[in-house]
Amino acid sequence: MAGPQHVGAAILAVDELDPLIVALRDDGYRVVGPTVRDGAIVHADLESAADLPRGWTDEQGPGTYRARPTDGDARFSYAVGPSSPKRELFPPRQRLWTATSDSDASFQVVEEARESPRIAFLGLRGCELAAIRIQDRVFLRGSYQDEVYAANRSDTLLIAVECGSPAGTCFCASMGTGPRVDDGADLILTELLDGDPRFLVRVGSDAGAALLERLAYRDATAADLDAREQVVTAAAERMGRTLDVDGLPDLLMDNLDHPRWDAVADRCLACANCTLVCPTCFCSTIEDTTDLRGQTAHRDRRWDSCFGLEFSHATPASIRTSTKARYRQWMTHKLATWVEQFGTSGCVGCGRCITWCPVGIDITEEAAAIRRASDPTSADLPVPPTGARR
Amino acid sequence: MDQGIGRPTVAVWKFASCDGCQLSLLSAEDELLSIAEEVHIAYFLEATREVVEGPYDLSLVEGSISTPDDAERIRHVRDISTTLITIGACATAGGIQALRNFGDLDAFRSLVYARPEVVASLADSTAIAEHVPVDLALRGCPIETDQLVEVISAVLAGRKPLTPTHSVCVECKLRGNLCVAVADGTPCLGPVTQAGCGARCPAFARGCYGCFGPTESPNPASLSDWLEEGLGVDHPELLRLYRTFNADAPAFRTESRRHEEVAP
Ligand code: SF4
Ligand code: SF4
Ligand code: SF4
Ligand code: SF4
Ligand code: SF4
Description:
The complex is a heterodimer.
Chain A: E1 10-13, H1 17-26, E2 30-37, E3 40-45, E4 56-61, E5 64-69, H2 86-89, E6 93-100, E7 108-111, E8 119-124, H3 126-140, H4 147-153, E9 156-161, H5 172-175, E10 187-192, E11 198-203, H6 206-213, E12 217-219, H7 222-237, H8 248-253, H9 259-267, H10 273-277, E13 284-290, E14 296-303, E15 313-314, E16 317-318, H11 323-342, H12 352-355, H13 363-374
Helix pairs in contact in A: 9-11
Chain B: E1 9-14, H1 20-26, H2 29-38, E2 40-43, E3 56-62, H3 68-79, E4 81-87, H4 89-93, H5 105-112, E5 136-138, H6 145-157, H7 168-175, H8 180-184, H9 200-203, H10 220-231, H11 235-242, H12 250-262
Parallel strand pairs in B: 1-2, 1-3, 3-4, 4-5
Helix pairs in contact in B: 11-12
The complex binds iron/sulfur cluster (5 copies).
C-alpha cells in the first residue's frame, strides 16, 4: 500500500461513522463489518452505523461463546467472532467450471466468470489484518496465483479498528499481530471511550486518505494519542492466553512422538471446526458432479480440512488414519512447518480455534504442555485432561 | 449397466421401515421425471403396481432385517441386483426399531401383541450390510433427496458419488451457521455425526440428533465427557442422545452402553 500523503492522526466524532459507511456504499462497496445476528457478533453486510453492535460485548473461553448487551455505548467492544474475512475472500464454495454436452461426441467447458466485488471491511482487528497478509502470501505470492482469491481481493478496502477488548481465548500479543495496528490497512481507527466517545484515525494509504477527506474530522491532540496508547496497552495486558513462540517450530518437530499427542487425540473429535474457523487455513478440495441426464457437469471447490480422512488419501488409502496424526498435522502446520513454507507462523493468535472447538481443545495449552514436558528444569509431567478416554 | 439396449433397471425394496425414505424419492419432484427417463423403474410398489421381473441393474433397499423372512429375502435381492445401495438409517444401522436390541424381545412381544406366539421376529433389528455385501450406504432418517439424486446420477455416469463421510460441523461451517453448542450450550451430535443433511438442525438453532449416524472417525466418548462436565448433561440423558435412529450403529451403540453402565 502506498504511504500516507498528507494527513496525520485525526479525530472523528461517533456521528461520522454513518457518513463513512454511506460514503463507501456510494462508491459501490459492500461494507462488511460487525453486527449482532442470532446472538453473536459476526461479520455481515452493513447498511448504516445503526447495524453496528452498539452496547454489545462477548465472553469467550474454550468451547464457549456468549454475546451480551452491556450498559456501555461502545460499538467495537468485542473480540473476533466465528466469521472472518476468509469467508468473503476465499468463499466456502466456489464454482470453477461447468461443462455441457448435447451429444455423446462433444462437450464444452465454460469457466466460471470471475467478478471483483468491491468490499470494504470495517472493524478489522490486528489479528485479522495479519491473517489477510498470510492468505495474500499463500494465494497470491507463490508459484501460482489463485484466481478466485485474486479476484475477490483485488478491489478491497481495509478499515481496521484496534482491539480494546480481547477475549479469554485471544493471544495476538504473543504472536505479534495485535492488538496494536500500525500498518496494513487503508484506515486505522481506535475507539476512544474516555471523555467524549470518538475515534482516532490514522491513514495507511491514499485511498484511506481520500476517504477521510470526505468526512468531518479534526486534528488529533497529544491527549488523543495518549488515550489510544492506553487502550492498546490495556488490551495487550488483558490477553486471555499466551503462547511462548521461542523456538516453537523446533520444539514441536523434535517431539513428534510425545505422549501429549495421544492425550489430545483422546479428546479431539476430528470434527474440523478449528481449521474452518481459522482465518489462515487455506485447504480446499475439488468436487465433480454430473446431472441425471449426463449433459451437465460441474467442478466446484470447497473448504476442506486436514481433520478429514479423505484429505490425506494417497492411493491406496489415507495416510493419516488416526486422530493423533491429524491433530499433529494441524498443530505442527500452524505453528512449525508454516514457517518453513511461508516464512511466518500460520497462527495469528485470534483464538477462534479454541472458542469454536466443541470440546474446548486449546492450541496454546497443547503447545505449553509439550514445552513443559521437554524442559529439563520443569518438574511438570504432561497431564492428560480429565475424563479422556477412547 | 444397461440390460441390452434399454435403460438401466431400478428396483426399490422395502424391509422393516416406515417408507419415509421411499417417499424421499417420490418427493424429488423436480428430478423424478428425469429419473424416470434415464432409468426404468422396474419394481417400486410404493409408486406403481407394474412389476418387471429381475434381475435389476440397481436396487435401492430401505429398511432393516427384522424377521427370518427378511433375512431370506435380502439374499434373494442381492442375488438379482448388480448394484445394491442401502437407503436410510433402518437399512444402514437397524433404524429406530433397533432399540429393541437393547431390551428383551419376548417382553416387548407379549406387551404389544394379543397373540405373541404367532409373531415371528428376530431378536435384533439389523443393518442390511450385516447380511449381504452392500455397494453403497446412503445415511439419514430419512435420506436427503439431493443425495439420492446425486447417487443415481453417479451410478448412471459410472463415477464416484459425492457422499462425504466427515462431520456435520463441516457443513455447518460451510453454511455459516452459528454453532449452537458453543454459542448456546445446546447439546449437539454434529461433531460425531456424518454430513449429508446440510446441517439442517443447527440452521434452525437446534442441536443435531445424529440421524446420519457416526462419522468416519467418531469420538462420542469425548463429546459425552464434555457435555457432562461442561454442560451438566447427565448419564440417562446422554444415553438417550445416542439411542435414536442410529442406536445400533457401532460407535453410538458402544457409547450409549457406556452410559447404561454408569446410569443410576
Ligand atoms: S490457529 Fe487458532 S488462534 Fe491461530 S490463527 Fe488459527 S484459529 Fe486463530
Ligand atoms: S492446518 Fe490443516 S487445514 Fe489448515 S492449512 Fe494446514 S493442512 Fe490445511
Ligand atoms: S481440535 Fe477441536 S475443533 Fe479441532 S477437530 Fe479436534 S475437536 Fe474438532
Ligand atoms: S430411515 Fe427413517 S425415514 Fe427411512 S425408512 Fe427408516 S425410519 Fe423411515
Ligand atoms: S452446531 Fe453442532 S454441527 Fe454445527 S458446528 Fe456446532 S457442534 Fe458442529
